[in-house]
Amino acid sequence: MNYHITASSLSNADAQLHIKQSNIDFGTTPTTANQLPNPAELFLGSFAACMLKNVERFSKMMKFTYSKAELKVDATWLEKPPRMDAIHYELIVYSTEEDINVRLLQKNIEKFGTIYNTVKLACAISGTIETAVQV
User: Fold this and answer.
1) What is the pTM of this model?
2) Domains and CATH numbers, the chain
3) Contact (CB, 8 A) for 60 and 42
């Protein structure tokens, strides 16, 4: 499988990712630093998207239903050389089912997540997965 995206920017302006039928604005100037995601946040967003896609994927394979999943991702950035040093996540899966095997879900996400596996080659990843009963 191959992936393809394009991106564009104008001098002294912000930029856009062009992915399929979506355009995603991101900040490249100090003017929008507090409004638009920066490249590091997009990177973490890709990590989160991978995890959430795999919750959906493995819910079918593991035969559980859920109403929503919430994910918090925090990262530690190092300045020299500039890079992400560590990522920590907290995933909550809301379901009416109380017997979801979260250990197996976490193992599957960590083993089969494309972005997850790419990132773990470059920095430490830690996290937890919990379920919350949704009525």
Assistant:
1) 0.93
2) 1-37 (no CATH), 39-133 (3.30.300.20)
3) no
Question: Which structure tokens are listed for 66?
Answer: 């859920």
DSSP, residue by residue, the chain: -----EEEE-TTS-EEEEETTEEEEE--SGGGTTTS--HHHHHHHHHHHHHHHHHHHHHHHTT---SEEEEEEEEEEETTTTEEEEEEEEEEEEES-S---HHHHHHHHHHH-HHHHHHHTTSEEEEEEEEEE--
Residues 25 and 22: their CA atoms lie apart, in Å, by 10
Distances from the Cα of 71 to the Cα of 57, 74, 112, 113, angstroms: 16, 10, 18, 15
Alpha-carbon radius of gyration of the chain: 17
Q: How confident is the model over 41-64, as pLDDT tens digits? A: 999 999 999 999 999 999 999 999
